[in-house]
Specification:
single chain; globular; 21% strand; nucleotide-binding; Probable branched-chain amino acid transport ATP-binding protein LivG; alpha/beta; 4-stranded antiparallel beta sheet; Rossmann fold; P-loop_NTPase; transport; ABC_transporter-like_CS; 276 residues
């Protein structure tokens, strides 16, 4: 009797996790006109997961408008924005934030007549206390109290992380510009975002707070957060970002590593203004 021939193992058809998947944020052919002015003119780029990506360009290049289009502040004239493969083009700001994509603003937007801790407590989504009946019915009131205690603990942890817990009972209107930037970032991160758009977070911040804020960004990136940073300080961009996107006249002029960008003649001519 002949020996049975062992069949060769079947090749696995399972895809490797993450293979062929697109980056968390993909912007394609984004365009925005205001009357006869084109602020963003066919911009396309992507942001890889777990990176700190810089978005630079001269004043009027379209950076802030691009941020506004991504986060739902403005609706694009055309083009698409995808977040984790989902088309979020034109969704409202709160629906985009609920999906894990949040932003900070160049001018901090705290509620000045509320304390730092109270500002923090407003940030988390899905609070049961926002529903009227949960707040007044005895059987549901306990859920509200329990969640508020949990959120308060998380808020304190975030304030400690940014080293502003000593300001918890201070009115936000009394904070310095740098302290407000720290509060705004702490508040944004309390929503457990996956991707954070930072619009000039270091503007008006003294060197000590600037270093502290950058340290926090790097620590959070190592934990898995993804950042897209608009910043005019080229030293900050080139020393901290793995990837840099350059916008000029509403379009993406160039992309690459900091070394590639500083060596790009088009970028030097259009933006950096001479030898680097």
């Amino acid at each position: 009797m002949s020996e049975a021939t062992e069949a060769p193992p079947e090749e696995s058809t399972d895809a490797v996790p993450g293979e062929d998947s697109e980056p968390p944020l993909v912007v394609e052919d984004l365009r925005k006109t205001f009357g006869g002015i084109t602020a963003v003119d066919g911009a396309s780029f992507s942001v890889e997961e777990g990176t700190l990506t810089g978005l630079i360009g001269p004043n009027g290049a379209g950076k802030s408008t691009t941020f506004n289009l991504i986060t739902g502040v403005h609706r694009p004239t055309s083009g698409t924005v995808r977040f984790h493969g989902e088309d979020i083009t034109g969704l409202s700001t709160h629906r985009i934030a609920n999906r894990g994509l949040v932003r900070t603003f160049q001018i901090a937007r705290e509620l000045e007549e509320m304390t730092v801790l109270e500002n923090m407590m407003l940030a988390p989504k899905g609070q049961v206390g926002e529903r009227f009946w949960h707040s007044v019915l005895p059987g549901l009131r306990g859920q509200v109290i329990e969640q508020e205690e949990e959120l308060r603990e998380r808020a304190w942890q975030q304030l400690e992380f940014f080293e502003i817990d000593h300001l918890a009972d201070e009115y936000a209107g009394n904070l310095s510009g740098g302290q407000r930037k720290l509060l705004e970032m702490a508040r944004a991160l309390l929503t457990d975002p996956e991707l954070v758009l930072l619009d000039e977070p270091l503007a008006g911040v003294n060197p000590t707070l600037e270093e502290k804020l950058l340290d926090r960004v790097h620590e959070l990136r190592e934990r898995g957060n993804t950042f897209l940073l608009v910043e005019h300080d080229m030293d900050v961009i080139m020393e901290n970002c793995e990837h840099v996107i350059v916008m000029h006249q509403g379009q993406v002029l160039a992309e690459g590593t900091p070394a590639e960008i500083t060596g790009n003649e088009e970028v030097v001519e259009a933006y950096l203004g001479g030898d680097v």
